[in-house]
Each structure stands twice: as C-alpha cells, then as structure tokens.
Amino acid sequence: MMKMFLFALALLWNPARAADVFLEKPYLQLGDAPHLAASESLVLLWHAAAESSDWSVEIRTSKDQNWRSTAPLSVQKIAVASIEPHVVYRARLSALPPGEEFRYRVRKSGETVFESAARARKSAAQTQRFVLFGDCAQDTPAQRAVAYQASRVDPDFLFIPGDIVYSSGRISEYRKKFFPVYNADDAGAATGAPLLRSVPFIAAPGNHDSALQNFNRFPDALAYFMYWDQPLNGPVVHGSKTSHVLTADEAVQAPFLSAAGPRYPVMANFSFDYGNVHWTVLDSNVYMDWTNQALREWVAKDLAGAKNATWRFVAFHHPGFNSSHTHFTDQWMRVLSPVFEEGKVDIVFAGHVHNYQRSFPLTFAPKAQADGSALGPKGEVAGDWKLDHSFADGKSPQGVIYIVSGGGGADLYNPEQQGKPSSLQAFTDKYIADRHSFTVVNIDHKRLSFDQISDTGGKIDSFHLAK
Fold first, then answer.
1. Whether residue 223 sits in one domain with residue 176
2. Are both 316 and 333 inside the same structural domain?
3. Rounded to two decimals, what is the model's pTM?
4. Same domain, residue pair 205 and 349
5. What's the rounded Cα separation, in Å, for the pair 277 and 15?
6. Which whole-number Å values give the CA distances from 146 to 310, 358, 437, 452, 457, in the listed order?
7. Are strands 347-350 and 311-315 parallel, antiparallel or unpaired?
8. Contact assessment for residue 59 and residue 104, using Cβ atoms and an 8 Å cutoff
9. Are residues 211 and 297 in the same domain?
10. Short-list 227, 194, 215, CA closest to 86
11. Buried b or exposed e, range 379-397, using 16+ CB within 10 angstroms
C-alpha cells in the first residue's frame, strides 16, 4: 500500500527540480517526542544552501479535507570550516492520527518541490514492524542492498545502533554515503531506497559517530548532533564523565556548538515509546562511565517508569556479549546487565561487530577486578552468567536476549569463525558472519516475531517470544 502510494506521488513532483533546491531532500525523525500521544507528530528536516522565507510545508491526513500548513519552520545554520554554509530546516508535522498514513509536501515560492507519504507513530493498541541494522554507511554494494531489502518489508521505523556513517561521522560523509543511499529516488539493490522520506530513522551514536573530536583536522565532525532530531530526555551532566565532553578549545569548538544547538550532548542518551514498546537508548562510547551511579540510576528509573509497556528494549553500539575475535574485549556495557535484568528488559540490541549474533537468554553477575574496578585493562568485564538453554520458541525466556546486528553494510568481521563452535563463547546461540543482514521485528500485542534477513532477502535466523 505505502509503496504504491509513494510511486504515485513521485509522478506529482519533479525530482530534477528537487535537486536544484535541496542540498539534502526531506527526511523524517521522531523529534523531541519521547511519549505516545493521542495526536502524534514527527519532524521533517531538509538541507538547503541558504536561508529563505519562501519555504512552507503542508500535510494532509484522513481527517483533513484540504492541505493544511504546519507551524512556522525552525532554522538551524551550519557554518563549519571545509563545508559550504547551509541551513537545516525543521517542520513539525502535528495532529497525526496514530498509525495512520498521511501525505506531506514541501513548497518553495508557492511551488511544490517535494511530496511523499509516511505513517504516524503507532499507538500501544496497534501492531508494529521495525527494521534494525548498525555499522552501515560505508558506501558499499552491501549497504545499498540492505537498504533496498529493508524497504521491501515496509517498516514503521528504522533503528541504527551506531556507526551510522564511516569513518569519522562527518557532514561530508553523510553527503556521500548516507543520504544518497537511504533517500534515493529509485529503489533497487544497486541504488538503495527512498526510506528516509517515508520512514522515521532513530539512532544511537557509535564510535565512528561521536568519538572523533579533532575539529582542526575535521571541522565537520559530529554531524550526528547537527543532522538528527531525537528526544532530549536523557541524563546530562555537561563537562563530566556522565556525558560526551569536547576537548577542543572554545574558539575551535564554537562553530560546532552553534550548529548542534540543544542537541549536544543531550541527544546521545534518550528513551522513547513506540506502540507497546519502551526503548532505552544509550551512548556506549569509552568517554562514558556506566559504573557512574547517577547514570545507572537514570537507566533504572527509566526502565521502572515503563511499567505500562508490554516490551522493553535497550539499544547501544558496543555489545557486552560478543564471540567475534574482533572487538572481543570491548565488554564494558556488561556492567549494566543487572540493571537490565532488574528492569525486565526483553532484548538488548547492539552493533559495532560487523556480523549477526544472538545470545541464549542470559543473566550476568559482574565481578570486580583485583584492583576493585569493574573493568579490566582492555575493557573486559569478568563475571558469571546463567544461560537459559531450555528456552523454547514462542515462550518467555529466563533472562535477556542480546543481539548483535552489525551487518548493515560495512566490511564483515570474522567469517572464518562461522561453523566453528569451539571459537564461540558459551552464551552465543547463533553466529552468522558470511553475509550482510538486518533485523526485522514484528510485534502484535503480546507476541513478538524476530527475523534476521540477508542482503539478498533470505531469512537466516528467526525466533518468537510471548508474554
């Protein structure tokens, strides 16, 4: 339904004209709207070369007899060295019936220059489907193939657990490797798909997104904070180990801070609701200290506050439980396992390791190192785990299921371990590293179905959960 509608809309506006007026065509974000609402909203963003008052956005739902205008646009100027100055426009698309398809159009000087269809956030009573993959925008054939296959399952939204764009999270890399693939005008395995214009993207930062702070070398770095629009409800203690901290001097970092606005550093950690699922999204980069009591209390409080959600997911970049030789010691997020278990988390999603892995349902008790610290010298976290080997498909697991879905497009890691159980940790149930893939989750109230799909569209793993 949505795909046919989008094809029809493409006939109503001229893509060549759009190329003349946009630096980046319109794309959808959740915005600072963490909670469900009787009347939903999304944020529409696009980039243009210069500021202008001639822009407007109109939307039309089943309840609108005619097109109606949005509230006035917000304007964020980007003026960092090495990139031509440009403007990010934001329009809030409001009064959207939950889960319903709607139309929007962007107009300039009274002329429609872009039009598309999308779907509002689902309510807790509606079914939902989302796609998830990490480690993606490396400008590879696999990235485009995954984007195309993801579009074919018609998701309600798409989540990226970090390493959104390679290799330094720069504006210039978004221009070349991200927007052309996920907002392509034509869908195909060789091109990508027009996902961004019809499906909200949500993301956690990875090390390639927010760890680089060398503004002297890459003044267009940290584009995550300039180009995304997500909830601002996370824990922030600026200038401490509870948040990302800029190390550059004030003059060098000033252009970035001006461009990022209120999103830095707040947007690195947040939570949101979609349907009957509560998501807790964390920044797992090494500058964060998840042994910090204030941070742990925020996670615990956030999960406890989701008591009305049927499902609880956590997402971040660095997996605590990973069997690949590559990044094996990057285990520091294990320290939060007891918090997840106490908070009744169902699934933890991560990327960082460029393949697919699924753990047995598990519980984990971290042990302190000899010096009393939680972390070993390379990031290891020792401890004892209990595995639910009796977990049966369609039942309730005893413990948390940990997913690594890092096959979104970047070069694969450790395919030589596939088929060699002796090379895997005891907690690993599935390990597939010889092909790129993405996650598809369907939720129908108290039933969850999970499928891992290859870049050619084949199913490579699946399981079901029930409450």
1. yes
2. yes
3. 0.95
4. yes
5. 37
6. 29, 19, 7, 12, 8
7. parallel
8. yes
9. yes
10. 227
11. bbbebebebbeebeeeeeb
